[in-house]
Amino acid sequence: MSKPMPITEFLKLFPNDDACLAYLFSVRYGDEFECPKCGEEGLFKKLSNMPAYTCSCGHHVHPMVGTPFYNSHTPLQKWFYAMYLFTTTRHGVPAKELQRQLSVNYKTAWRIGHKIREYLALVDGDPPIGGHTEIDETMIGGVREGTGKRGRAAEGKTFVLGMVERGGDIITRIIPDVKRTTLERHIIRHVDRDATISTDELNSYKRLKLYGYKHASVNHKAEEFVRGEHHTNTIEGFWSIIKRSIRGTHVHVSARHLPKYLGEFEYRWNLRHRPDQMFPYLLRRLATSQSKA
Ligand SMILES: [Zn+2]
Prior knowledge:
Elements: H1 7-13, H2 17-29, E1 45-46, E2 53-54, E3 60-61, H3 76-88, H4 95-102, H5 106-120, E4 132-140, E5 158-165, E6 170-175, H6 180-190, E7 196-199, E8 214-217, H7 233-249, H8 258-270, H9 275-288
Parallel strand pairs: 4-7, 7-8
Antiparallel strand pairs: 1-2, 2-3, 4-5, 5-6
Helix pairs in contact: 2-3, 3-9, 4-5, 5-8
This protein binds zinc ion.
């Protein structure tokens, strides 16, 4: 299995802002970029006084234009390092830590963190999952210690539906309630009809067989956690990573920001067998995708 990029490697590849800009140039335009003005290939040189390249004909190219790096006062290498941190952690990067590691003020750290999360959470079409899929619903966020309310009525919490293919990808969705029609709509959309599905005993899952799924549930209330091949340990493992991280590092996550956090943890989960790809893939997103916000 591949390993995440060690910090020594990161510093060798990106020792300064110019090296980062050169990488951005090659990601966006390739190494054999044809000058749009004179048509010559590969003659671009870095300008010494600004973050741009120039062709021998005098045409300028600005690799940061159209990316979140453009118009940011934070140097490019700090952005790269922030992305590096997000793709080498298991539990996320709170703004306080970004502030310390990047030597920027809190507001800047907060903004950079949320911008990176926004790109981590970009939905890449979410190809359907199948095989043996575990489905579970949970509540995340909101409640501060000591408000007393627990369970489904807890205030400020948001319902989240999680669907994970064993050995494969995870898809999460924020849902308004856990009614049968709500859950079925998402399941039918994202899970192949020939999949085997494991859930808990919640009534809302009871009709899945009608849609062609092979479905069985374990009865958690009766302390039954495994029935043959059926259990929901994988999806519960995901919930516990994200809940522990939010509790431990992100003091409070509002419903407005929750989709970004979910997307962040989904990103790391779906690339967990290819940790060496997490950083370059994220960098490519910031360099080339339009964010949805
Ligand atoms: Zn040219």
